[in-house]
C-alpha cells in the first residue's frame, strides 16, 4: 500500500503522546500475564530435563512417578506422534526429546499433579537410563569433520564437502569483483571475531494454562508473541483441528523474539488430554535459560579494503553461527545485513549455520544482524584509526542511499541512513570533549523489517465510539499506536477508540508480533479498515440527505457534501451517523485483511562514550545517543522506548551477557545473578533522535523501529573501548577480565 | 522479459548464472519457471523464498505483478524477532 | 508437610491464610491470596519483580517465607492506589511511558515508593542505585528514572 503522496498531511493525533490504554491495568497489578490465570480443577505441570549435553535415552521408567499420590498424568515422547512435517517435528522434538537428548536442559518427560510440590516430587521418581554421547558446544569445533554429530542427515544440498554433518546450510551473497576491489585499496584489514550467545532475557518466564477435552476441543492461555502461530504448532503436534483450539494471548512480559515459538504449550495440552483436567505450566528462570532460545553465538572473519581517502573498495565476510541442536536460518539474515549500510562495488558474504549441543536458538531482535554488523563496523573503525580518518565522515562517504545496489541484492528505495549519519555528525554529542581512559564509538545498524499476514476489524459503536479488534500481542505499546492511527483516519479523539488483542477464534490468521511489523502492518490494516467504515458512513449520510454517495466526503470526523453542487447540508459527525445506524441499514464496521509488504528497511546510528577503569577493566557507559529513522513516529514515546530498550540490550550483549558452557557441556550461568543483564545503575540516560524519512510502503510513512536499535551497540561500545584503552578486542562480551587482559597485554 | 537476480549460493544450482531471464508477469510465474528450468532450485523454493521487486521485499505474495524493466531479486525467506 | 495458619495484614486488610512451611511469601500472595500483581521473574532474588514491603522494609517476596508474614504488614502494588485514585508514581509511569511490557512495573513501583518514603528528593544516581535490584528488559530504564523524578517532584510540591 502506497504512501499518501497526494497530500502533505498534517497529522492531528498521530505523533502525539497520549497515555496507553493498558496503562492503568499494568500499574495497578491487574493486568493478567501468562502465570496469572487459573482454572477450576487445575493441575500443576512440571518438566523433566536432561542433566547431560548429549545422550541417548535408553529407557524411561515412569511407573513410580505415576504411582505417586496426586499425580494425574505423566508424558514422554511416546505420548506424542511423529509429525510428517520436518519443521513441526523439530519444534515438537525440542519440546519433548525423542530418542536422544540434545542439550543440557532438553525436556524428556513431564507430569501433571495436584500441586507443584507433588509434581516436583514425581519428576524425581522418573528413572532414565542414559547412554552418554560426546558433545560439542563451540561453533568452530562443531564444523570440523570429526566433531560429534548432533543430528544426522540434516545438511542441505548447498553445504560443501569437508565439513561436519553439523553444518546444516550454506549461503553466499554479494556482487562485484573482489580481487579488483582489494587491488585498489591502500589498506586492507582482516580480523576474526567471536560473539557469545545471549538470551532475550524477558522478565516473564514462559507460562501457559491448557485444557483439552476428549472430543478434541481445547483452550490455551499463554504468553506469546503470536497466538495464531501457537495454534498452528499445537494443533499440528496434537493432531487436532485449528478451529477446535482457541488460543488466547495473555499480556506478555517481554519477548524480543523469544516468544515466537512454543516450548511448554504442546506439553501442557498433552498432559491436559491425558489427565482430563486443565494443566498449568510455568517455567522457572533456570528453565528459561537452559531450554528456551538464546540467540546464536558466532565466529566470523572480515576483510575490508579502503583507500587513503576512506572509500571502501571491497568487503568480504565469512560468518559461522551455531544455533543449537536444530537447524536454523539465522546466518542468512546476518550475511545479508552485514554490509547493508555501505555502497560497495565489490562485496561478498558467506555464511554457515551449525548444529551444537545447545538449546535451539530463537529469534532475538534483528536475528543474525547484530553480530555480523559488529564485526564489520569494528573493521571499518580500525581502518579509520589506522588511516587517521574521521569515522563518521568515512561512513557518510560510503553510505548506502536511494539507488545503491545493496550488498544483499535489491537496489534501495528511500532510506534514511545518510540523514541519520548527518544528524549524528551535527549533534553536540559527537564533538563533546573526552578525558583520559574515555573513548567514543559509533556504529551503523540495519534491519529489513517485515509486514505479513494481518487482520483488523473495526466497529463503529452506536454511541460514536470505536472498537478495534486485532490479533497481535502488544509488546511495547502497540494498542496505543493502533488507536492513534484509527483516530487519525476517522477524525475522532484518541480516547474514543479502544483496541483489543483478540483470541484465535475471533479473527483470521495474524502473523507473529515480530520483524518490527505491528505498527506498520496492523497500522496499515487499521487505516484501511477505517477507510472502509468511512465509505459506509458516507453512504449512510448520502441516503439521509438523499444525494449520491460519491457526492459525500469525509473530513474532520464528519460526512460533508462534497461541494456546493452536492447540496447544502450541515456535516454529520461519526457519532450522529452511528446513533441512527439501526435506521439507515444496520451496524457499521470496516475490516481489512492483507499479507502486507513494503515494510521498508530501517537504519540507525549510535554514539557511545565509555570510560574504562584501567585497574579493573570495567567499562562504564557515560553517554549514549541513538539516531534512527522511524518513517513516521506514531507514538514517539514508544518509538523512543524501542530505541532505548534495544540499545540497552545491545549494551548488555557488548559488555556482560554470555552463555557460559563448561567442558562437560553444561550451562554454568542459568540465572540472572551470573547472566548479568544491565541494571539501572550501570547506565546513563539513553538520548534519542528520531528522524522521519517516510516509508513509501505505508499510507502514513511508518517504518518498523523495534529491531534495528539492538544492532549498533555492539560495535559502538567495542569501538569506544578500543579508543579508550588503545587496544582492540575482537570478542564479545567485553567483560572486565577480558578488557583487563587486553590492557595488560598492551603494557 | 524479466531478469531475476539470484543469490550467490544458488548460482551453482542454476548453471552458474547470477541473473536469469524469464517470461513472467508475477512472483508465482517467476518461481514456477525457475523451478521448471532449474530443478536443482526446487528444494530452496520449497523451503521459502522472498522476492525484492524494485527494492521492496515481498515475502509471499504470488500474484505481485512485475512491471516491465523491474529489478527482481530472489532472497531467502526471512523471519524477525 | 502440614500447613500453618498465618494472620497477616496486606495493603491494610487483615487476612488469614494457610501456608506450607517451605512456601514463599510470593507464592502465598499469588496463589493463596490472589494478589497476582506480585510477579515472579526469577525466584532467586535477582530481578525484583516480586518486590513488596514487609513492615515497611523493601524485600523480594520470593526470598521470604510465607510464615514470616505472620503478624506483619505487607504492602504490594495492589495497595498503591487509593481506590480509583492512582498514586503519583503510577500516574507518572503511565504519562511518561515508563512501562512497555509492564511485567517489572509492579515491583519497580513498590521499590520506588519505598525510596520516596525515605528520601523525597533523590538524585538521579540515588534512584538508579536504589532500583538496581529491579530488572527491566524493555525500557533501558531511561523513562523509569524520569518518571520517578517527576513523581517525586510532584509529591514534594503537594
Could you characterize what this model shows?
The complex is a heterotrimer of chains A (747), B (81) and C (158). Chain A has 747 residues and is α+β, with helices and mostly antiparallel strands. Chain A folds into 3 domains: 42-133 and 204-253 and 259-291, Aldehyde Oxidoreductase, domain 3; 297-449 and 600-746, Aldehyde Oxidoreductase, domain 4 (2-Layer Sandwich); 451-596, Aldehyde Oxidoreductase, domain 4 (2-Layer Sandwich). Chain A contains 21 helices and 27 strands. In chain A, strand 17 and strand 18 form a beta hairpin. In chain A, helix 11 runs parallel beside helix 20 (712-725) and helix 19 packs across helix 20 (712-725). With 81 residues, chain B is of the alpha+beta class. Chain B has a single domain (2-76), classed as Ubiquitin-like (UB roll) (Roll). Helix content of chain C is 34%, strand content 16%. Chain C contains 5 helices and 5 strands. A 5-stranded mixed β-sheet of chain C has the order 2-1-5-3-4, with helices on both faces. In chain C, helix 2 (88-95) packs across helix 5. The longest helix of chain C has 16 residues, at 142-157.
Q: What is the secondary structure topology, with strand pairs?
A:
The complex is a heterotrimer of chains A (747), B (81) and C (158).
Chain A: H1 23-27, E1 43-49, E2 55-61, H2 63-67, E3 71-75, H3 86-95, E4 100-101, E5 107-113, H4 116-125, E6 127-132, H5 139-143, E7 167-175, H6 178-183, E8 187-195, E9 207-212, E10 218-222, H7 227-238, E11 245-249, H8 265-275, E12 279-282, H9 285-291, E13 297-306, E14 312-322, H10 330-337, E15 347-354, H11 369-386, H12 391-398, H13 417-426, H14 428-431, E16 438-447, E17 452-460, E18 466-470, H15 478-490, E19 497-501, H16 518-545, E20 552-555, E21 558-561, E22 572-573, H17 574-579, H18 581-584, E23 588-596, E24 602-612, E25 619-629, H19 636-655, E26 686-691, H20 712-725, E27 731-732, H21 736-746
Parallel strand pairs in A: 1-12, 8-27, 10-11, 14-15, 18-19, 25-26
Antiparallel strand pairs in A: 1-5, 2-4, 2-6, 3-5, 7-15, 8-13, 9-10, 9-12, 13-14, 16-24, 17-18, 17-23, 20-21, 21-22, 24-25
Chain B: E1 2-5, E2 19-22, H1 27-37, H2 42-47, E3 49-53, E4 56-58, E5 72-76
Parallel strand pairs in B: 1-5
Antiparallel strand pairs in B: 1-2, 3-4, 3-5
Chain C: E1 4-10, E2 13-19, H1 25-32, E3 51-54, E4 57-60, E5 73-75, H2 88-95, H3 105-118, H4 124-130, H5 142-157
Parallel strand pairs in C: 1-5
Antiparallel strand pairs in C: 1-2, 3-4, 3-5
Helix pairs in contact in C: 2-5
